[in-house]
Amino acid sequence: MLYSGYIFDVEGTLVDSVRQNLQSLQECLADFGVTVPYERLQLYSGLDGNQTLQLVAPDLDAGERKKVLEAQGELYQAKYLTSVNAFPGVRDLFEALTTEGGRIALATDCKGPELKHYRSLLNVDDLIDSVACGDDVEHGKPDPRLVGLALRKLRIPAAQVVMIGDTPYDAEAAYGAGTAAAGLLTGGFAKEALAEAGCLVVARDLRELLPCFDSKSRRTALPLVG
After folding, report:
1. Which phi and psi (to 5°) does residue 221 adopt?
2. CA atoms within 13 A on the CB side of 210
3. What CATH class does 18-83 carry?
4. Which of 33, 65, 73, 75 could bridge 53 with an S-S bond, Cβ 3.0-4.6 Å?
5. Spatial contact of 158 and 151, defined as CB atoms under 8 Å apart
6. CA–CA distances in Å: residue 99 to residues 25, 46, 186, 213
7. Domain 5-16+85-219 belongs to what topology?
């Protein structure tokens, strides 16, 4: 199968931000009197924020969850955002895909100053066709609407598109939107977890992923690697 569209998650996939996101959430929960081990938060990295809080802090009501998420966003921007770096190989991968005629979209739950900062780090705006972000939808992954919006903006049939992310929730959102899914280990999840969520390929990082999308490989179902 020839993939002509590529939808990329951002946090944990293109930029190394998982630790910062989880630590800022952990700190804010502590301020609300809720202690959650980092390892437990890692299990829900990439999951919609409100859903995460329902799982790790079930005693918080809807209003308190909203306050925690607002506080976490402010803390993340003030304390952690500047420590985030882009993963190596982003531009090389994007150039390789677009040179072969591929179209690229971003589908990320982040928004506002965070997304603006990430895009400045990545320096690939000239290679991106469209962006769907947290400003566009109410619910984060695994709800498929964010990926579905990115897909509609690409104007490519879902069967010709693959979503690349770092969490099982990215894969679930991809399949909910009708696209294939590929996974990276950069988000802290095990290969088995990503494969079980439906990733057709699992790679250590973007550089290892690149050979999976060359002309020869793109004409067949992607092999499970890593």
Report:
1. -60, 135
2. 14
3. mainly alpha
4. 65
5. yes
6. 39, 30, 25, 12
7. Rossmann fold (3.40.50)
